[in-house]
Amino acid sequence: MMELEKLLLNRDKRAIARAITYAEDDEEKAREIIRKLYKRSGNAYIVGITGPPGVGKSTLTDRLVKKLTLIQLQKLSIGKYSRGGNDVIKKVDHIGIAVKSIEEARKFYEEVLGLKVTGIEEVEEQKVKTAFIPVGESEIELLESTSEDGPVAKFIEKRGEGIHHIALQVDDIEKALKELKGKGVVLIDEVPRYGAGGARIAFVHPKSANGVLLELCERK
Questions:
Q1: Cα dihedral sign for 8, 12, 15, 19?
Q2: CA-CA distances (angstroms) from residue 199 to 93, 180, 192, 196?
Q3: How do 214-218 and 162-170 pair as beta strands?
Q4: Considering the chain, what percentage of its residues have pLDDT values greater than 70?
Q5: Phi and psi, residue 180, nearest 5°
Q6: pLDDT of residue 71
Q7: DSSP symbol at 61
Q8: Mind listing the pLDDT tens digit for each residue in 22-42?
Q9: 119 beta partners
């Protein structure tokens, strides 16, 4: 095997940069590298291209598509194209984290992680104040109780601050609840209610989900 291929397999940064240059310049060396590495990839047809903004990922991908007859897929939705063929669950909508104080908790996410709280809202019915922090296609939801007898306050009293629930986004929440109930899943909410951001939500009992509180979330 040529030296460059060995370096590529060892994830050598300079070798990767050189290979990218070959592809961008439409050199025969690029085709030769791909042919050789294809045999070492388990005959994979998927090529992952990653890197920081501004390094030319889009340019390289377009070049590969046009010159090396590769196929570019912009996006696959989790639901319709999931391995299990599930067309009910779309994606992880958010992860709910119970905190004593949103103002204190947000400092870590904004000042340390560089994320940004996009809005704070109080859901009076659930005795909770929420703050959403976008992360890619999902969000982190900080949950602060507005009452000593609220469910989030009770959660923190029993378990301390931490992950409270995982929310899965669905297209049709009634359909999802009916399907889960038909499979014997225990539901906290058999009828959807309104949550933060105007979303329609319903919770699945933790005893049906290995101790995890699951929320179904429908957004229009």
A1: positive
A2: 11, 19, 10, 6
A3: parallel
A4: 73
A5: -65, -45
A6: 39
A7: H
A8: 776 766 777 777 777 666 655
A9: 132
